[in-house]
Amino acid sequence: MNSESTVVRLKRSVRYIPATVIVLLCILSLFTSSVFAGNSKEYNVIINDNGKEITITTEETEPLEILNEANLTIGSSDRLSIAGFNAGEGGTIVIDRLNTINIKIGDEIKNFDVYADTVGEAFEELGISTEKCITDYDAAAPVENGMVITIINIKTITINADGSSVTKTVFDGTVEDALALEGITLGSDDYTEPALDTEIEDGMEISVFRVTFETVEETETINYSTETKTDDSLEIGTSEIEVQGENGEKNVTYKITYVNGEEASRETVSETVTKEAVTEVKVVGTKAADVTPNGVTSYGSYTLGQSISGKYTHYCMCAKCCGKSNGITASGRRVYTGMPDPYYIACNWLPMGSVISVNGVNYTVVDRGGGGLSSSGRIDIFTPGGHQAALNAGTGKCTITFVRFGW
């Protein structure tokens, strides 16, 4: 992080020696010497020396001689104006002294050369707003060479812009004022956080966001879709591809918005399909092995031969598992411990008598259970070996394929 002690960008006045004034003085000297020769008389002349006025009574007609009579000298960088002076009659001779003033902002002192008569005029000459800047001098205080003017109402802010971060000492104003004093300009789409009209606070962090745009054309893939058909001559769990799917292509034109060089968003301007995608046709078997079909090919959003992901648990006929111990299932079928495995399951989301293949083994829905068995894919497998056997069988994930819906 770069650190500086001031954000005020102050305009230095240009030092110059007004050659035109010297030429005018020479011409005026020749003119007055010829016109007023032998006819000198005393008259009053006002001399404004950097805001301080004195009046001198003189017979001299040449401005420099008048200044000599007043014991005033002109420095090489001072400016002299005789626009309000009439030789032999009076008027005002104005001296603008070039003074060096020191402005203290925070811990840093900078010096500037000014022609101003007062502190307020000096700040205006340097481009500093006297409305927002509070100093230890009144605006009407006279300028003195070498004086130190301290800006009192300072705040420290951080400006993040164009890849750099600087800490600045500023006085009251808005975010817009701070950026202007730092010489940072915004494009028509650029923005800041906080907003430009936000008043500066001590410790504030100002971030500048540069917004640019780019139009690009890209070739993109159109993914093919899949259409599923059923075939009762194929066994459940088997399938065939009737038509092979094929991806298509399209040309897409985007308008991309970048913020500080990073892509922020993109808008589709136009797109043209150059190659159509081919839909894949998949044939799924619905013929159930050793299961008598009932003609029902779908239930809700499920179809025969469809496979989904599931989760299984195991239970037995005991009261701890079922809440009763008579072994009568919700379908009326009776189960008991030690019987040959009937391949029964409990679930709440399929009709009684439905047959599903669980990891390749067919089970019939004959029982219901708690609310957890209402979720799609959730099943409880009956274990004829008793409670410990059900615990040992545990839980797990499985693939469920629909063999039959209902009895």
Notable features of this structure?
single chain; 407 residues; mainly beta; six-stranded mixed β-barrel; five-stranded mixed sheet; disordered N terminus
Mean pLDDT reading: 87
Strand order of the largest sheet: 21-25-22-24-23-26
Helicity level, as a percent range? 10-25%
Structural class by helix and strand composition:
mainly beta
Note the overall shape. Answer: rod-shaped
Radius of gyration: 48 Å
How far apart, in Å, are the first and last alpha carbons? Answer: 77 Å
Secondary structure tally, helices: 6
Query: What's the count of strands?
Result: 26
Quick one: biggest sheet? 6 strands, mixed, barrel
Low-confidence stretches: 1-38
How would you explain this protein's 3D organization?
The chain has a six-stranded mixed beta barrel with strand order 21-25-22-24-23-26. The protein is built from six helices and 26 strands. The longest helix is centred in the first third of the chain and has 17 residues, at 19-35. It has helices spanning 19-35, 63-69, 119-126, 175-182, 319-322, 387-393; strands at 2-3, 43-49, 52-58, 79-86, 90-96, 99-105, 108-114, 148-150, 154-161, 164-171, 191-193, 205-209, 211-222, 226-235, 239-243, 248-259, 262-275, 280-287, 298-299, 302-303, 307-315, 344-346, 355-358, 361-367, 378-382, 396-404.
